[in-house]
């Protein structure tokens, strides 16, 4: 990674805040179009992130439209062609995916996208937090804090790609009120597992208090991601081993599946709180892209595709604004309108399915019904995505 330090003071056409999937893709496309782009992230890279690491079929077309598909193809991801759901008492349902999906670690994916941004000419800075964005005439001034210094940088446009639950409080994520952080299924954890039999499906195992997703990723490994309630996490001793042991106790099919596997040291990551958006927040002081605009339930397995879709919509309008073909007001109106059209349906279906599938009796009934009526199951799967 060739990111530069805090010596960057020149003006930019675009500052992209957050070098996750959305921000790095955004910066790569802006820089490729010739705009002087600065990409900033407060964390180091590469690093593991709490994510199911399932790249839905919808993502493939979006990579193509953003011109990033060749980068993704070279990452050695695992092919996935079906989804297996298993309830705690053992009922299961396999649904073929409408098109091929991929399993790739965020460790590999996010750093490949950052490399693409740098390759196209963006400047990348890690370890710097954006503290404040001040609108100015014809642009913005952005206050940034590094390890030991603070600086201000000016740019014509700024993009908020700072991720989940931070739409209006990018500087204060950790200070969410407790009442909000105590929602059910608010803790995400992930770890890689090696030594499991290979198969080309993503698997979801449900139990009272949450669910675990198992997705094949590169190098013959599996990514295991859990989403659990705060109460469940407390009961399990607030650690990954405890969560796995209780999930396996409740769902014997999961215990069987994980037999012979071993977690890979250094691949653990956590996310807290995972709060699903009630509304789309496509614009604050600046456009919001990716999870900053809308968080859908992780069960949908489509958050990354939704993030890419917001990149595709925003970057086209931003390019026209920077070229002087569109006013800021028109850009804002159009982007908000486009974003409102996407995401509300999948979020609602995802929430409903989470509630049903994490309830032992309901999940059993739902999966049995789905097995008898495969058309309905396939339609429900489609309802969780755009
Ligand atoms: C448990 C879990 C499982 C999931 N599983 C899946 C799945 O299987 N498939 C799928 O498609 N989606 C899944 N998702 C959703 C997916 O992870 C997100 O939709 C995706 O990460 C959104 O990307 P992003 O770039 O918007 O945000 P992020 O990837 O979160 O990136 C945001 C970046 O902004 C940086 N940042 C934040 N604030 C600042 C600041 N002030 N200054 C500088 N930098 C800042 C952060 O360090 C971070 O790198 C899952 C989510 C969770 C929580």
From TrEMBL:
InterPro entries: FAD-bd, FAD/NAD-bd_sf, Geranylgeranyl_reductase
Cited Pfam families: FAD_binding_3 (PF01494)
SUPFAM superfamilies: FAD/NAD(P)-binding domain
Domain FAD-binding: 12-310
Gene Ontology molecular function terms on file: FAD binding
The protein's name in its UniProt record: NAD(P)/FAD-dependent oxidoreductase
């Amino acid at each position: 990674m060739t990111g530069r330090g805090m010596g960057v003071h020149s003006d930019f056409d675009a500052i992209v805040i957050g070098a996750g999937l959305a921000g790095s893709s955004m910066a790569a496309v802006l820089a490729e179009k010739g705009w002087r782009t600065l990409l900033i992230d407060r964390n180091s890279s590469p690093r593991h992130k709490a994510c199911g690491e399932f790249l839905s079929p919808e993502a493939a077309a979006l990579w193509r439209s953003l011109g990033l598909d060749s980068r993704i193809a070279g990452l050695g991801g695992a092919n996935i062609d079906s989804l297996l759901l298993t309830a705690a008492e053992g009922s299961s349902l396999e649904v073929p995916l409408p098109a091929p999906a991929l399993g790739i670690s965020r460790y590999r994916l996010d750093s490949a996208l950052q490399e693409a941004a740098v390759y196209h000419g963006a400047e990348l800075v890690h370890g710097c937090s954006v503290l404040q964005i001040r609108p100015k005439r014809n642009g913005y001034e952005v206050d940034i804090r590094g390890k030991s210094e603070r600086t201000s940088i000016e740019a014509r446009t700024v993009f908020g790609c700072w991720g989940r639950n931070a739409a209006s409080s990018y500087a204060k994520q950790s200070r969410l009120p407790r009442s909000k952080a105590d929602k059910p299924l608010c803790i995400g954890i992930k770890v890689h597992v090696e030594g499991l039999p290979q198969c080309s499906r993503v698997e979801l195992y449900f139990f009272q208090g949450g669910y675990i997703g198992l997705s094949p990723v590169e190098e013959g490994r599996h990514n295991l991601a859990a989403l659990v309630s705060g109460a469940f996490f407390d009961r399990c001793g607030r650690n990954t081993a405890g969560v796995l042991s209780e999930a396996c106790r409740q769902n014997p099919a999961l215990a069987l599946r994980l037999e012979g596997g071993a977690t890979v040291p250094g691949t653990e990551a956590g996310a807290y709180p995972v709060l699903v958006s009630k509304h789309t927040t496509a614009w604050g002081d600046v456009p919001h892209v990716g999870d900053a605009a809308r968080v859908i339930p992780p069960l949908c397995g489509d958050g990354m595709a939704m993030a890419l879709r917001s990149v595709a919509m925003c970057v086209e309008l931003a390019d026209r604004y920077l070229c002087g073909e569109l006013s800021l007001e028109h850009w804002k109106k159009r982007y908000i309108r486009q974003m409102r059209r996407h995401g509300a349906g999948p979020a609602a279906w995802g929430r409903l399915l989470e509630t049903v599938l994490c309830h032992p009796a309901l999940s059993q009934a739902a999966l049995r019904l789905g097995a008898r009526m495969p058309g309905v199951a396939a339609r429900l799967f489609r309802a969780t995505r755009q």
